[in-house]
């Protein structure tokens, strides 16, 4: 059940049977020569919708722009400042809690969002504790879950891609985005086949060290078939994790 495809009476009726919601959050950033710029938003959105259909869980609109300053040397990347993302997440949380949602499960597709989103949760809880006028009403539980960190996904990624998985523009995330959008599959030769690994300092340093945008990965291995397997594994893992989140009260 998608919030943005619902009417307000339908949302009101949903809240009579459940106060949980999944909010996909990602980024709009480069993902190497064959990875779609929207990959980090497409992946959690696709998984969230699958879980929502399986469990009759409300799924909110995808927050598809995140903390991506380090990718700005590549055309197409759009980034938010930490303060902007914090304010955005905080306002989303407060809006939903005003209507009666109590369990907000943010399904994340971009590691760069993690600290800021958790800081936004901390701000909301702090304001509630301090009695601020804009604080959440009643009990509130917030969780950020990175889809690629579940046990099933990690195991399957190792089986499918081994050392070629890398850490950015990975064949796993590219495969999942191809499964979600098969009409946008790109076939590009990689040179070297597996990109170098390592760290970076800023956007320009990232482009110098990783000129095609990959870090330690070979996304030429990505396929729709692998994406479907990853999708099914993610549905199973995220469903289980969401159920535990709700059951914990």
Describe the overall structure.
Helices cover 46% and strands 8% of the residues. The protein has 249 residues and is α/β, with parallel strands linked by helices. The protein has one domain (3-247): Rossmann fold. A 4-stranded parallel sheet has the order 2-1-3-4, sandwiched between helices. Helix 2 crosses helix 8 (224-247). The radius of gyration is 18 Å and the shape is globular. The chain starts with 7 loop residues before the first helix and ends with a helix. The mean pLDDT is 96.
Question: What labels describe this entry?
Answer:
249 residues, Rossmann fold, alpha/beta
- State the share of residues found in helices, binned by percent: 40-55%
What oligomeric state do the depicted chains represent? single chain
Q: How many domains in all?
A: 1
| Low-confidence region ranges | none
How large is the radius of gyration? 18 Å
Q: What's the SSE pattern?
A: HEHEHEHEHHHH
- Average residue pLDDT: 96
Chain-wise SSE layout:
Blueprint: H1 8-17, E1 20-25, H2 39-55, E2 58-59, H3 82-99, E3 103-108, H4 114-130, E4 141-146, H5 151-161, H6 171-180, H7 203-209, H8 224-247
Parallel strand pairs: 1-2, 1-3, 3-4
Helix pairs in contact: 2-6, 2-8, 3-4, 5-8, 6-8
Quick overview:
This protein is α/β, with parallel strands linked by helices and 249 residues long. It has helices at 8-17, 39-55, 82-99, 114-130, 151-161, 171-180, 203-209, 224-247, and strands at 20-25, 58-59, 103-108, 141-146. Helix 2 packs across helix 6 (171-180).
